[in-house]
């Protein structure tokens, strides 16, 4: 049956299952300062240099990268905040929302996201 | 099996690479962009058996990458699994239409990921076996390997034409709630066996392309995917069929094919004749998996075809 392709294969030893996320998690945490700095720089750039929608798109791309990876590594809250920020920014851009108003609406989520990431890094 | 993983996040690449190594695969090349992946695929130094592709990447996105890979003969049938956070239907539609084989959403679930990689491994093994069999049988006059009449075929250079497996995965990815209103209809080319037995394999493929073009022409107002499943049978999945009179559709389809009559007559061949089945719909109260409409549609034109497709025979 072709549908059998969707069946779950036999399980593997527990130790093998946890290896990958642990290694990648350390790398993700080590990159947190860079990622927070990137978001900070984009917000700063937007506020001081013309408030261009392209900068908001780059913010959406930055949060997109965080969203999928953090959630896969078990950091559900960071994943959810990043996903919300990305979705809000992309929807706003697609709907033609005025850029300053769009960042204002997403700012709280972005700030909380950066705070939560810093907490994980400091822990 | 050799993999190319594509994602703009190096950490996610590390997750995929580690997971694949953990599953026993160690020939993996990671690419941080679509262009980097294309360079790897075309360099000749590494010939991947599977691509794992993110969608949302700066520059060229993953869907464009799939389209470009499918245009390269070597990768026309290579499994491509999208691994993405994008779960909107529009992305799923675009990915499968571009030629994706399967679709996995982030966050990546270890068990689910292994299951999909297991599917890719079986597909790879099956194709390898088919290729060996064809090689043993030898080339036809046009230098093509002729597949069995019962074998599914990916019709060359046809938009919206996908593996039957991809068609199933598309419906499974969308799930029951997002496939309500979908419909499937099958077509049987009644004289397909003649073309397979009496002509070069390339002529058989051209005939399949003509019939597919005629189908596209007659149902062009709908969003759809098409798959040739072997034995002269084609199944078409429509995302909203509306009211379709299949008797009328069969008539107009054969009428369109008659426009090719002079070309066929010149080669002393009959014009392909097509029989259309009934439209099978997926409703709110439908029982079974979302893929069941495909089997019901196939069974309507040829009970054997549904059985063969269900048995998981793969593209030759």
| General shape of chain A | globular
Q: Secondary-structure element sequence of chain B?
A: EHEHEHEHEHHEHHEEHHEEHH
Query: Which strand order spans the largest sheet of chain B, edge to edge or round the barrel?
Result: 2-1-3-4-5
In the CATH hierarchy, the architecture of the largest domain in chain B is 2-Layer Sandwich
CATH architecture of chain A: Up-down Bundle
The CATH topology annotation of the largest domain in chain B reads as Alpha-Beta Plaits
Number of domains of chain A: 1
Biggest interface reads: A-B, 32 and 36 residues
Number of strands of chain A: 0
Mean pLDDT of chain B: 86
- Name the helix and strand elements of chain A from N-terminus to C-terminus, one letter apiece: HHHHH
The total count of helices of chain B amounts to 12
Care to describe what's here?
The complex is a heterodimer of chains A (123) and B (316). In chain A, α2 (32-48) packs antiparallel against α5, α3 runs antiparallel to α4 (76-95) and α4 runs antiparallel to α5 (99-122). With 123 residues, chain A is mainly alpha-helical. Chain A has 5 helices and no strands. Chain B has 316 residues and is an alpha/beta fold. In chain B, 45% of the residues lie in helices and 15% in strands. Chain B has helices at residues 10-22, 34-43, 62-70, 89-98, 110-137, 164-174, 192-198, 201-218, 246-258, 261-266, 292-301, 303-310, and strands at 2-6, 27-31, 50-53, 80-84, 102-105, 183-189, 224-230, 233-238, 274-276, 280-281. In chain B, α1 links the parallel β1 (2-6) and β2. Chain B is globular, with a radius of gyration of 20 Å. Chains A and B meet through α1 and α3 of A and α1, α5 and α6 of B.
Topology of this protein?
The complex is a heterodimer of chains A (123) and B (316).
Chain A: H1 14-30, H2 32-48, H3 53-72, H4 76-95, H5 99-122
Chain B: E1 2-6, H1 10-22, E2 27-31, H2 34-43, E3 50-53, H3 62-70, E4 80-84, H4 89-98, E5 102-105, H5 110-137, H6 164-174, E6 183-189, H7 192-198, H8 201-218, E7 224-230, E8 233-238, H9 246-258, H10 261-266, E9 274-276, E10 280-281, H11 292-301, H12 303-310
Parallel strand pairs in B: 1-2, 1-3, 3-4, 4-5
Antiparallel strand pairs in B: 6-8, 6-9, 6-10, 7-8
Helix pairs in contact in B: 2-3, 3-4, 4-6, 8-9, 11-12
